[in-house]
Design a protein that fits this description.
28% strand; alpha+beta; five-stranded antiparallel beta sheet; 60s Ribosomal Protein L30, Chain: A; Phosphoribosyl-aminoimidazole Synthetase, Chain A, domain 2; six-stranded mixed beta sheet
Length: 267
């Protein structure tokens, strides 16, 4: 097996027989139902969002999850049980519960006063969906940055896996990138640079571009020129907010393969 290559936060390994494995993970500490937690939320919510992050990172590359491994630094009952129930329901919401194996471990030897969780997802992948953005594409933000107590399963401002799948399925969409604790601006710079482009910001964008998006409460998607409105209609059923972040262009003095750059047209 090779040493691997990184695609954002996802590690892709070449295995025997021409196979490729993709690995993504997320961790959480001090958020949960225990007395030492800084943010008090049910264990079920912890399981939903902590598993959502690596699943979204893999699905954005068009990888197919095989297994979810949960390392839970809490007792089996009730905290471990509640967190695992959340992970299973996140798999169900993503349509993966019948195809993905779920396993985990809990702390059985000492009492814990604070929640700690690590989740790793292993997937298979062909050619990763990566570097598809072209000059002239519009970059849209789906969802809004949320962190701490502002993160809620019921909030329509929080991106989810069904909405990510809708975005991937639109014929005019290119790159899709979940946004986490680094914020929208950092993810947008990386998205543009991997296609050797730069982002010209839309002055009408009202989002805090430096704010943490916590457990992937927003994601970026590039859309071909002229398809912005159609893309928004495509996502209308998800009720997640969509806002134009900017347009991609070639840096001065550099030529890029792909569509020619066009004037600013978020729609």
């Amino acid at each position: 097996m090779s040493a691997g290559r990184r695609y954002g936060d996802v590690l892709i390994l070449s295995a025997t027989g021409g196979r490729r494995l993709a690995v993504a993970c997320d961790s959480l500490g001090g958020i949960g139902p225990k007395p030492g937690d800084s943010v008090g939320v049910p264990g079920y919510v912890v399981g939903r969002f902590c598993s959502r992050v690596p699943l979204m990172e893999l699905l954005a590359l068009e990888a197919e999850p095989l297994a979810v491994c949960c390392c839970l630094c809490v007792e089996p009952e009730p905290s471990g049980r509640d967190i695992m129930a959340g992970v299973l329901d996140e798999l169900r919401a993503a349509g993966l519960d019948r195809t993905v194996a779920l396993t985990g471990s809990t702390e059985k030897n000492v009492a814990t006063s604070q929640t700690g969780v690590g989740i790793t997802v292993v997937a298979t992948v062909g050619r990763p969906r990566w570097g598809r953005a072209r000059a002239g594409d519009v970059v849209l933000v789906v969802g809004e940055p949320k962190v701490g107590k502002a993160v809620s399963l019921e909030s329509p401002a929080v991106a989810d896996i069904p909405t990510l799948r809708l975005a991937l399925g639109h014929p005019a969409s290119g790159d899709v990138a979940p946004v986490g604790s680094r914020g929208i601006a950092a993810e947008a710079r990386d998205l543009a640079s991997r296609s050797r482009l730069e982002l010209v910001a839309d002055p009408g964008c009202t989002l805090d571009l430096e704010a943490s998006a916590g457990p992937a409460t927003a994601f970026l998607v590039t859309v071909a020129p002229g398809f912005g409105r159609d893309f928004e209609r495509h996502l209308a059923g998800s009720e997640r907010p969509v806002q134009a972040l900017g347009i991609l262009r070639r840096p001065a003095g550099r030529t890029t393969r792909g569509r020619a750059a066009r004037g600013w047209s978020p729609c």
